[in-house]
Amino acid sequence: MKQKAGLIARVAIMATGVAGFAAVSPSADAQSNVRLYGLLDSGLTYVSKVAGPSGTTTGNRLSVDSGDLQQSRWGMKGIEDLGGGMKALFILEGGFSVANGTAGQGGLALGRTTVVGLSSPYGTVQIGRRKDYIDEIATWYSSVHDFGVFINGVHDNNLDRVGGNRANNSIRYDSPDFRGLSANVTYGFGGTPGSMATGQSLGFGANYKYGGFGVGFGYWQSRLGTGTGMTNASSDAGATPGGGCDPAYGHASDVCIRTWMVGTSYRWDKARVYASWSRTLQPLARFGGTAAPLATTLTSAASSGAFAAAGSNNDATNVFDVGVNYWVLPNLKLAAAVLHSRYSFVGAPATGRLLQFNVGLDYFLSKRTDLYSNFANLRASHMYNPGITGGAPGRDATQSAVTLGLRHVF
Question: In CATH, what number does 39-409 get?
Answer without folding.
Answer: 2.40.160.10
